[in-house]
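User: Second chain of the day. Same drill as before.
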Amino acid sequence: MRDIILGGLLLPLKLYFRPDLFRAEVAALAPELPPDYSLWQARHKLSDPQFRRGLFRLLLQTWVAFLWEPVLAGLLQSAGVEIDWGGVAVGVAVGVAVGVAVGVAVGVAVGVAVGVAVGVAVGVAVGVAVGVAVGVAVGVAVGVAFTLTYTVIFTHGLFLPVQHLVSLVSAFLIRLRPAFAPTLWKLAPVRWDAIILLPLPGLSDLLVTLYRQHPTLGQEAINEVAAHHYQHPAAAEALATLAREDAMAVASLPALASFRHSLGWLSEDTKLPENTRRPLLRMRDISQEVASAQESESATNQVRRLTQARHMLDEVRLQPGPFGTGLARWAEIITDGLKEARQRQREVEPIPQVYQSDGKAIDPWQKHEQMLPFKGRERLFSQLETALGGERRTTFFLYGQRRTGKTSVLKYLPQRLGSQIVPTLLDLQGFGTAETITGIIEGMTRRINDDALRHADLKLPSIDTLKLERDPYAAFQGWLDQVERVLGARTLLLALDEFEELEQAIADGRIDDRILKTIRNIVQHRRQIAVLMSGSHQLDELPPHWSSTLVNTETLPISFLSEDDTRSLIEQPVADFPAIYTPEAVDTIVRLTHCQPYLVQLVCALLVERMNSMRRMPPTSYVTPEDVETAIPVAFERGSAYFDNLWRAQTETALARKVLAKLAAAPNTALDGTALRQIERDEMALAAALRVLQRREIIVRENGCYRIVVPLVAHYVRRETSV
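Assistant: Same format as last time:
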């Protein structure tokens, strides 16, 4: 009984100030049920005696809670305030009675209407009876809800000035004595009142100071405020302030590398303003790149990681949010570190390592084009520019096998196309991981805006996030209407890289085929927006709905480099590259790689490493064919991902791998169909395997005979099949 009385008298305080505690008590009656369960959903628990007792105790406490008004009146009278007890009684009675009366009236009306609708046979009397019963129930509920709502609002209205005064005093005191922060946090109104509607002054400053003084307690306080239904913006502001101060405090590369540790609380879902969250996520990535550079023992890798960090920093500085000053300081630190790393690179590795052996796309945004090992593809760029400049809108399909340079070509579009073309690269391998179409469209529009600003100094409108949540496809089409009005005479080129990821997202059920209808609508009806799809599958390999999506399509194949471009890539990958190869070595590289761009880069990178590690330099020593042969086993290890994918995935079937093994066993001889039928009598199955290998450009058919296209691949197949 004591618990019921005390709990009932404390119940209004919980409802006034900490309704979350009351909800926790209700949820504790059935902890195995979800937190948001209803009593109707938990009706099967009524068979549990302990649940029934707990529910009954809560009901008794609720009725005892109606004594709160007389208790409050008694406290006021003891303080000298004259109380009209008759008025208190009448007020409570009238408050409940009015609610009940309104509810009864509404219930009776509803009941009568239901009774009439049921029909004369059932009788209006039944309807009235039902109406009275419903009216009483609704009336009691309305009366209680009205009383509680009125009391809560009135009570918080009384306490609001006191709460703001306490917050103002706290803000003043922590400026004088930051050491008071733990004590002031214990007294903070946000801790004992969960229904403070207006922002409390100085709360974010208190959280920042508390975190600086006591990091563990400060993190707990920030988490508590972040969970507050109304005051959570103060936690976001405090986190942004802490990050901004930490960014400003960075004064060296090691400090910049450690910056990411201070953002352990940050995630994609952290509630922060968009102009704060996005820069912070990129700044964390920049810090990670700098950390990778610091941990690397290779001077070349240090230069690459710091170059990438500087590239990412330049992107962030386009839209720095509140971090502009700190980012300017970061740019100076990274630039100085890059100069030192390049000096070490010249000392330790006198032959510059400029070849891209990791298979990543070459990005001209990172440095001047003459300092990047990108060669050829002039005809392809010319085709694109000519077609985009015409009146007839065409959908382009850039088709090529893995690591033939498709993404590098897309990254070079801003440099190679005219000023009237605004290209944007949409890597669907990244966007395709989003769980909903809303996430995909939001990511795509953000990238389009960033690329337009970077490449064309063109500011495009932002998509309406509220409309995006309601109807993402309609919001995207409306946004494209706005974009076309801003473009003027220019053409926006949407380059969708790895477009097959959309098919995977559809197959997984994360999005539906309306995305394809949206693409088709752009292709057919947008006069200032062109589409370029890039992937490693031809259209006839995809489900039929793609053929209706990509109407009026012009295929742009991308394959091996020309021999002239390959020799230029080997001997002069960048400006002022030293002459380190003998002519025979160049011939050997061309023959072994068959001008496959990734393999050329890989082999040449290994040869530069070999020359530097052995301290060999022209004119006393040059790369020879023997060096190239020595690099082959290392190339298989370094490029294992490429070779393994070719051998296990691109071949698709065990029969295709048997065909490759047969061809690799006779590297200097092309085999005809008769020789291949020795491994498979089923001519249809054999023909299917041969078609796959030819489509993937692994083998070629000449004069009725077949051979492996790239001798280095034949080397690898012999190694795999001999194990």
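Residues 2-151 form one domain.

User: Great, on to the next one.
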